[in-house]
Structures are given as C-alpha cells and as structure tokens.
Amino acid sequence: MSDLQREELAIQKEIRFAEDQLVLWIQKHMDDFEIHARQVRQKAERENDRNKKNYGKLEESQFRNVIRVAETTDSPEVIKNFLLYQLGRDNKWGAGKDSLAVKIIADIGSADSDSRLYTLAHKVAHGAASQNIHSIWLDLIRRYLGYGSRYLVYLNKKTKRNK
Predict the structure, then answer these.
(1) Measured distance CA(57)–CA(96) in Å, rounded
(2) What's the rounded mean pLDDT across residues 4-32?
(3) What pLDDT score does 109 carry?
(4) Is the pLDDT of residue 4 over 90?
(5) Among 104, 17, 41, which residue's Cα sits nearest to residue 69?
C-alpha cells in the first residue's frame, strides 16, 4: 500500500469519527428553521400576506441542486455563492440571518475562519497526519449537505403526514 493510500484511509477513518457531528449540526439547523418557518407562515396567514405563504417550504430538488454544485466544484465559495443565489430567488430557504442558507454558509465558513466545517477539517487532517485540509473540507461540506438532503426528505414526509 502506498503512502498516499494510507493517508486516504486515515482521512476516511477520521471523517467517519466526525460524521455524527455533521448529522447533528445540519439536523439542528433544519429543525430550528422548520419551527421558525412555521411561525412565519402562521403570521402571514393571520395577516393575509401572500408573499410569505411558501416561506421555508424547501423542496428536495432545491437541496439536491446545492449538492450537485458541491459535487462539481472544488471551491467552497462557489457553493456558498449558489446558496446565496437560491436565497435571492425566493423565500423557501428563508430570509436574512434566520435563513437556513445563511446558517449553512456560516457552518461552511472560509479558510480564514473558525467555522464548524473548516475547524473539523483541521481536526480530521491532524488525526490523519495529512496536510490536505482543502480536500477534507470539501468532503465534509459534501457529506454535510448530503445529510441535510436526506433529513429534508424525512421532514417533508413528516409534515405531509401531520396535515
């Protein structure tokens, strides 16, 4: 086995140890956002505000589109830019600081921040004795978004059943 293969195996092992954190972080954001969005829609209904009728009603295809962007780029900034684009299109991702997109962007962070995912990438790299922080960071971002997409399927089915 080559040194490169050993390093990759060590990275994957460290990432598996970190997966619970990824799942818990994205699910917490999505649960909080669902509560916030429901409150906004209830208020909009009372005030007959049609602009917020679909606030926070995120569709699975919209989340898959973000994942598709994440899978086709090596730039966290491109992923964050696409989330901002989605945020600007309509209010299904929310609005302002309470939006799901802004929370995800904060978790992704940047190379000069101490965001959740970038910090975790450093921990994984350290545990695997790797200098490949950027690719680890991208892998964590992609997994984080993937877990969010799966959880959205659950949330949407749960919402339909409760109607």
Answers:
(1) 16
(2) 95
(3) 95
(4) no
(5) 104
Please classify residue 4 by burial: count the beta carbons closer than 10 Å to its beta carbon, then call 0-12 exposed, 13-18 middle and 19+ buried: exposed
Residue 118, number of CB atoms within 10 A of its CB:
22
Instruction: Give the tokens for residue 120.
Output: 């975790």
Record the pTM: 0.94
Helix (H) or strand (E) holding 39: helix 3-46
Answer left, alpha or beta for residue 94, where phi above 0 means left and psi between -120 and 50 means alpha. left
Structural domain containing residue 156 = 3-161
Instruction: Domain count for the chain, please give it.
Output: 1
- 3-state helix, strand and coil shares in percent for the chain, rounded to the nearest 5: 75, 0, 25
- pLDDT tens digits, 53-68: 889 999 999 999 999 9
